[in-house]
């Protein structure tokens, strides 16, 4: 029941919010995200005692053998937790901002939350596809209405890119469905298919392209920096913090267990693409002057590592990737919050024009340093645990792959520290001298993030235990 | 049978009503009532239906499927009258005649869904076509409307000739008109039959505007009064497809027969998809874009004809319903906007939020976005084609074309929501608003729960 509630809360509040005026939508958004977080907490408790209770199945389209089947396993719970925290953080951060037509803004945000939770909980392939698209459409409108100057063409590119991928995935899903003996879309019948290797080999690409576009990994990434740059920052937080995890999740839930041989056959190709992405994106990030684009490219690099770890496919890398999905989400949202604050205060995002902010906004500087260090996986921050596990998994897979991917760490340190230097240290100028320090809501949001960073950096066990059941499941099909 | 009789009678009655009733509103109400009667009469038949029962010396066979299709066609027409009925009087003075012609078309469609004899097929296609020639030219003072009617008439009669020729050739080989008894056998086909089937494919492709027989479509759709374009592009087209599907699924599936036409039809479908979608991208007028989009959508419906399985028949019903409701709704919105170019839609969302929202939902449905009826429609025809087994290339092509279609459908959405402008909008009534909301509700209800329609199969 809790699982359905998790989808219904943002859906219903989202629809209610449309047409709301003044501060009504803000409050409703905050209440809704708090309620979602409470429900996730409840689900976490239930997961310890009676995990079967989180599975819900109801009739949907009997003619097709598709059911409304949702449930939560460790990975799903972790991602729902991330979604709930992410939306709460976003709503707290922007609580003092005023958006044009707030009713539509918050309504669309909440609808995309419903879509995301749906993706992470669906145990029926058709339902998964429906939610997959549903999460995209509100984001399309959010970016196109509240984004930067070039928002319309950029968002359009993003939409067509992902929609094409999704349609290919749909063909793959239809094919798999027709192969299932009982003509059903359920997760169980998909994972029991055992198709011949040759079919798995081409089906792999139908599904993988959709996920690869969403992540995005090289060479399917070209929509991403533009979209991150042009989107309103709250939407970018959701896009980079949660939505890219849909691609990784898709591979873990619907690709590896369903087409294990296909994944095995193409693992080398996928890993090489991912590793190219790491190095390539890191190099571009080093020369970026635009604050937002730098973080966008750094995100491609991080996602590349996660995708490589998925296909390395051993217990450590799978554990690492799941933990890192959560931590990357938290860290990158933290970075975006700081970007949002600076952009809102100074109206610039070119790093050449910034500098010396630490003198005027010391608290913000401290937060930015901690989050940036977590982003490059310094020990004792949350980023370290996941990256260590992933690298050790990659090491077992192939030492050379690990070595090249490891370049990513060094390069990440280069561009991140360079960014810190340019933005918060160095000479201040007439513009940056006007910076004011954090407001209360911003302080709350950033403190929450730093707490998560430090707690999970020192004591990652609960997270590892949460996702271990999924790791075993995925690993066992090989 | 009930639907056929009641629509034909209503058509005749409406012509006389036009003589005695001067109030145009009343004529519209009469027409709406007549569709309702036909709708109910059609459903009433389902209660007493015996599967396989035939009428008119076995020339007509009514099945559950044909009743369901009639219900979709009549329901869509009802929605069409409610949304756009008042536009009829803007076309010309003979309002009752226009309604009467629409009813004659409907009787042709009900015949197309239940024929079991090639002669009845011919009759159905002709009854559908001839009133359309008149409707296309009904705006008599408009040169483009005249051009549309003439073009349509000339090319339409030519394709009728081809259809008749095909029927004659098949009759020559099989010795019967009954589509069940053509007895094509499993051995090699008689050359007469093969050429007959080809001619039938060409003629029916013309009627459903499939490439390369589509050249009349953009001009006719663009030139005809918009209110009739809306009907021609939706219910009528669905009627053409039901005839196509019925003929090919009933008669030409056995053994060797399908080998001969499957590839031809697959190529026609591929051409339709590619050309329809690519050309729609370059249109400057929304009306013309919808004309090409109707060609593109025809390509999807052709997939169902090719697939030859149970999923395909479900798909064609769902596709007919989803496509008709969305396109009728889209045309209803279009008629309220004065400027038909894409720029004419700029800023519509601020001025008329409901109109823009409705257009968005209809365009989503046409593009096949989940949670709208169009998604499951596309899903079913794609699934049918994948199931068929030999057409995976066509499915991939169709999917790519669906992605392209997003481009031109979203251009309208972008204009409405993300561009500033002062669109000129015709005034509309509260009733129109209510019907738009009903249409949105239908699109979303079928998108969330397609079983609403499919459970009657």
UniProtKB/TrEMBL annotation, chain A:
Keywords: Membrane, Transmembrane, Transmembrane helix. The keyword Transmembrane applies. The chain crosses the membrane at residues 27-47, 76-96, 103-123, 129-146, 158-178, 202-223, 235-256, 262-287, 294-313, 325-343, 364-385, 397-420, 441-459. Residues 122-407 form the NADH:quinone oxidoreductase/Mrp antiporter transmembrane domain. Coiled coil: none annotated. It comes from the Bacteria. One of its GO terms (biological process) is electron transport coupled proton transport. The keyword Membrane applies. Pfam families: Proton_antipo_M. InterPro entries: NADH_Q_OxRdtase_chainM/4, NADH_UbQ_OxRdtase, ND/Mrp_TM. It is a multi-pass membrane protein. GO terms for molecular function: NADH dehydrogenase (ubiquinone) activity; NADH dehydrogenase activity; ubiquinone binding. It is found in: Endomembrane system; Membrane. One of its GO terms (cellular component) is endomembrane system. Belongs to the complex I subunit 4 family. This is NADH-quinone oxidoreductase subunit M. It comes from Chitinophaga japonensis (Flexibacter japonensis). The lineage of its organism: Bacteria, Pseudomonadati, Bacteroidota, Chitinophagia, Chitinophagales.
UniProtKB/TrEMBL annotation, chain B:
Coiled coil: none annotated. Keywords: Cell membrane, Membrane, NAD, Quinone, Translocase, Transmembrane, Transmembrane helix, Transport. This is NADH-quinone oxidoreductase subunit N. It holds the Pfam family Proton_antipo_M. The gene is nuoN. It comes from Chitinophaga japonensis. One of its GO terms (cellular component) is plasma membrane. Its main location: membrane. It comes from the Bacteria. NDH-1 shuttles electrons from NADH, via FMN and iron-sulfur (Fe-S) centers, to quinones in the respiratory chain. The immediate electron acceptor for the enzyme in this species is believed to be a menaquinone. Couples the redox reaction to proton translocation (for every two electrons transferred, four hydrogen ions are translocated across the cytoplasmic membrane), and thus conserves the redox energy in a proton gradient. InterPro entries: NADH-Q_OxRdtase_suN/2 (IPR010096), ND/Mrp_TM (IPR001750). Signal peptide: none annotated. It is found in: Cell membrane; Endomembrane system; Membrane. Its EC number is 7.1.1.-. It catalyses: a quinone + NADH + 5 H(+)(in) = a quinol + NAD(+) + 4 H(+)(out). It is a multi-pass membrane protein.
